[in-house]
Amino acid sequence: MMTPKERLKMILEGQQADRPACICPGGMMNMVTSELMDRVKVYMPEAHTDARQMAELAKSVYEEGCFENYGVPFCMTVEAEEMGAKVDMGTNVYEPHVTGYVIDSVSEYKKLRAVDVTCGRAKVVLDAIRILREETKDVPIVGNLTGPVSTASSVMEPVVFYKELRKKNQEAHEYMEFITEQLIRFGRAQIEAGADLIAVSDPSGTGEILGPKYFKEFAVTYINRLLDALQEEKMGTIVHICGQMSPVYQEVNEVHSSALSFDSVVPMKEAREHLKDRVLMGNVSTYALEFGDPDRVKMLTRSCIKSGSDIVSPACGLGMKSPLRNVQSILEGIVSADSEK
Q1: Three-state DSSP class for 246?
Q2: How far are the Cα atoms of 245, 262, 263, 310 from residue 329, in angstroms, in the given order?
Q3: Could you tell me the residue range of the domain that residue 330 belongs to?
Q4: What are the CB-based long-range contacts (under 8 Å, 24+) for 126-131?
Q5: Residues 241, 262: contact at Cβ < 8 Å?
Q6: In this structure, are residues 129 and 141 in contact, taking their beta carbons and an 8 Å threshold?
Q7: 217 CB contacts (<8 Å, ≥6 apart)?
Q8: In the prediction, which pLDDT does 312 show?
Q9: What are the residues whose beta carbons fall under 8 Å from the beta carbon of 126, sequence distance 6 or more?
Q10: Residue 337, number of CB atoms within 10 A of its CB
């Protein structure tokens, strides 16, 4: 039987594995729930700022039979905070979020701090990856980055940002260049610390918000710049984009990632029809995971596989109150479906 790392590596390379992989990357797609924290006696928000606790929570996701990977951090605020944004660190039932912007316009981007991977929460994430690399094996370690558009709209008012993509187009590109360079620095540092692959989540960079033209000009362009700059000798990259894909499938297919991940509004069967040759990941409803039951989760899991998902995962970040039994049912559904072949 393949190890989780062997299985995921084969799938990301476009090869046929023994069965679909089951992962939840971290970052936007946080996989830690309140019940899991109670089980292992490690809690947020402390785990956001302590490398040992972050690593222990990441381990527990695998050890408690939820997913076949480790992934850090557990939020999307590290990059914005490092560039100067104020962040509320959340509690054990809700995640960190930005409470104070740094700049008022794309033209003010030079006021932002560069990401320093030797201090702050960036260092905590890197130290947690090092701990996972030293203390575990055969399980893939996923490092996480907030996508360029989502990061750019986290350090300034999003509505202003979107307007200035058109009104201050040249300065907006200069701003996005700066943002992307910070993400490249943080992503390379995660790989050097021991991450096997990098997941990029860009929920604010959707085709619905930007429209096809600006989706290609800003989301695809800078995601690709980020992906192309990361080291290639590791397992690969995953990109998660929220929202409907029907207007932008052609543009999405231009993303240079090893795998593409979508949320539950995207029918996996439709995605497979439009992206025939791509490795696809997703997309078990997080609503069902929080409010459904194990049988429904298993049914949705099998539906994802039947519809063309190569890597089964939640459609988005788990609700912190999701029952552990439901979360465990994704992997159980994959294994049982494989045994019935």
Answers
A1: coil
A2: 27, 20, 19, 17
A3: 4-339
A4: 126/189, 126/190, 126/193, 127/51, 127/193, 128/51, 128/52, 128/54, 128/55, 128/58, 128/72, 128/73, 129/72, 129/190, 129/193, 129/194, 129/195, 130/51, 130/193, 130/194, 131/51, 131/52, 131/55
A5: yes
A6: yes
A7: 165
A8: 98
A9: 117, 189, 190, 193
A10: 17
Q: How far apart are the first and last CA of the chain?
A: 16
Collapsed DSSP state (helix, strand, coil) of residue 56:
helix
**279-281, strands of its sheet edge to edge:** 21-22, 311-312, 279-281, 259-262, 236-241, 197-201, 141-146, 70-72
Q: Which residues pair with 97 in a beta bridge?
A: 88
Q: What is the mean pLDDT of each run of 10 residues along the chain (341 residues)?
A: 95 96 96 96 97 98 97 97 97 92 98 97 98 96 98 98 98 98 97 96 93 96 96 85 93 96 95 97 96 97 96 95 97 82 60
Work out how many domains the chain is built from and give that number: 1
Q: What is the pLDDT of residue 340?
A: 67
- Determine the Cα–Cα distance for residues 119 and 76; give it in Å rounded to an integer: 17
Rounded Cα distance, 98 and 226, in Å: 23
Quick one: tokens of 271? 């995605």
Q: What is the pLDDT of residue 234?
A: 78
CATH number at residue 297: 3.20.20.210
Task: Specify the pTM.
Answer: 0.96
Joined tokens for residue 266 = 């995207």
HEC string of 84-117 equals CCEEECCCCCCCCEEEECCCCCHHHHHHCCCCCC
